[in-house]
From TrEMBL:
Compositionally biased spans, kind Polar residues: 424-435
SUPFAM superfamilies with a match to the protein in the record: P-loop containing nucleoside triphosphate hydrolases
Record-given protein name: Type II secretion system protein
One GO MF term: ATP hydrolysis activity
Native source species: Collimonas fungivorans (strain Ter331)
PANTHER family, per the entry: TWITCHING MOTILITY PROTEIN PILT (PTHR30486), TYPE II_IV SECRETION SYSTEM ATPASE (PTHR30486:SF15)
Family: Belongs to the GSP E family.
Signal peptide: none
Region (Disordered): 421-452
UniProt xrefs under Pfam families: T2SSE
Gene3D superfamilies: 3.30.450.380, P-loop containing nucleotide triphosphate hydrolases
């Protein structure tokens, strides 16, 4: 076993050298000459046929040029070139790795990867910036997106549901900047989040009841905190007999529901003609007989349409927003509404927000990379011209008896005031024998779900 590890380390060491890059580049040019001789025939070959072709030609090239490589090193060159000709080069293995969440490329020789919420530098590299651009354009070609000096910034949805963002010169100073966000083929279920420790059983039950009772929920959090994954999970609680319309800038949601209508905004063409915004899509979705409207991310003028939808009979709607706390979430909604040209007074806007939202679920990524629901906050109404909030659960980390870090959620013991959850409140009062615990909090770890 130890010998296998040593061989793997030796292989990795060779692929990270400049010698490997130089030989691969020379062999690639040789293969291009051979491919030109084959003409259209090469385009009909399967990947296995390309692999066999590359193996034979690379072996012949190495012998002809008298390059001092052993059999394992020749195989590595051939494998890399097969990925170049039939796949996506150095990106192929990272895209196939299920543990990779984000791929961040800052120029050809500076690659970072996020796994389990932790960002680390990768040893792989591209030959040069031209090589990196060639791979990126190969990804964009089937999507019909152009990347050049006149259009140096591209945001696109990948066929597998991932998201690609690229910025090149002259906007990017140090070479092409590539950001790839990957998404799971099978979205996380609420039980998966429970087992991962993202929430405990009490929060699971509250969210289950809130979604089924058609409460309006906004998932708030920072970048890469797990907002979309949580929104996907909440959709599992939606009854199957309801029609759900999703509206997104770039389609990322993958709801496990039998009746989903997916809408995606469109960028404008030359001089912005033909653009369709999220605001336009939400306005149109109101005419599509939706039971619920789910906005992938609220980031602009669409906030007004979302609030109106929540206030005009489309209960149970949900969305995500970038904010660090529930209170900042409300401030951001007010700011976005102002930018959108809201004509009413500050008081009327806040009343509309308070009337639209029932719960704000704050999710965060901790320093160790774990994603946790850090707060469940209920929007209870208005008081002194301020939207009043009631925090129901708050996350805390602590060191357990075994010396390991664990999670717990502190509850004030106050049941939600939302009329939609009246039945749950009555059941809770019967089980505890009182309507309130006097504001004294208690902690719940949720069993195994609370342990990392």
């Amino acid at each position: 076993m130890s010998n296998q590890i040593e061989f793997a380390d030796d292989d990795q060491a060779f692929t990270n050298t400049q010698e490997f890059q130089d030989i691969k580049t020379a062999a690639y040019d040789h293969l291009l000459t051979r491919i030109e001789e084959l003409g259209a025939e090469f385009g009909r070959w399967s990947r296995s046929a390309i692999q066999q072709f590359v193996n034979l030609d690379v072996d012949g090239f190495v012998r002809l040029q008298r390059i001092p490589l052993n059999e394992a090193e020749v195989r590595q060159i051939a494998d890399a070139l097969t990925k170049e000709l039939a796949g996506l080069g150095p990106l192929e293995d990272l895209l196939a790795d299920m543990t990779v969440e984000d791929i961040l490329i800052n120029g050809y020789n500076d690659v970072f990867v996020s796994r389990h919420g932790i960002l680390q530098r990768e040893t792989l590299r591209f030959t040069d910036n031209a090589h990196l651009l060639r791979i990126v354009r190969r990804i964009l070609a089937p999507l019909g997106r152009r990347l050049d000096e006149s259009n140096p910034m591209v945001d696109a949805r990948l066929p597998d549901g991932g998201r690609l963002n690229v910025v090149i010169e002259p906007l990017s100073v140090d070479g092409p900047m590539v950001s790839i966000r990957k998404f799971r083929k099978e979205p996380l279920k609420p039980t998966d989040l429970l087992n991962l420790g993202t929430m405990n059983e009490e929060i699971y039950s509250l969210l289950d009841n809130a979604v089924k009772a058609r409460c309006n929920i906004l998932v708030s959090g920072g970048t890469s905190s797990g907002k979309t994954s949580l929104l996907n999970a909440l959709a599992f609680f939606i009854p199957e007999n309801e029609r759900v319309v999703t509206v997104e800038d770039t389609a990322e949601l993958s709801l496990n529901h039998p009746h989903v209508v997916r809408l995606e905004s469109r960028l404008g063409g030359f001089e912005g003609s033909g653009a369709v915004s999220i605001r336009d899509l939400i306005r149109n979705s109101l005419r599509m007989r939706p039971d619920r409207i789910i906005v992938g991310e609220v980031r602009g003028a669409e906030v007004l349409e979302m609030l109106q939808a929540m206030n005009t009979g489309h209960d149970g709607s949900m969305g995500t927003i970038h904010a660090n706390t529930p209170r900042e979430c409300l401030y951001r909604i007010e700011m976005l509404a102002g930018f959108a040209g809201f004509q009413g007074s500050e008081s009327s806007l806040r009343r509309q927000i308070a009337g639209a939202l029932d719960f704000i679920v704050q999710i965060g990524r901790l320093s160790n990379g774990r994603r946790r629901i850090v707060s469940i906050t209920e929007v209870t109404g208005m008081g002194d011209n301020i939207i009043t909030l009631q925090e129901l659960y708050r996350h805390e980390s602590f060191i357990g008896p075994d010396g390991e870090e664990a999670d717990r959620w502190i509850s004030l013991g106050i049941f939600p005031h939302a009329p939609k959850l009246q039945r749950q409140r009555q059941l809770g009062q019967q089980s505890t024998g009182s309507a309130n615990t006097g504001g004294l909090g208690h902690a719940s770890t949720g069993g195994q779900a609370g342990r990392r």
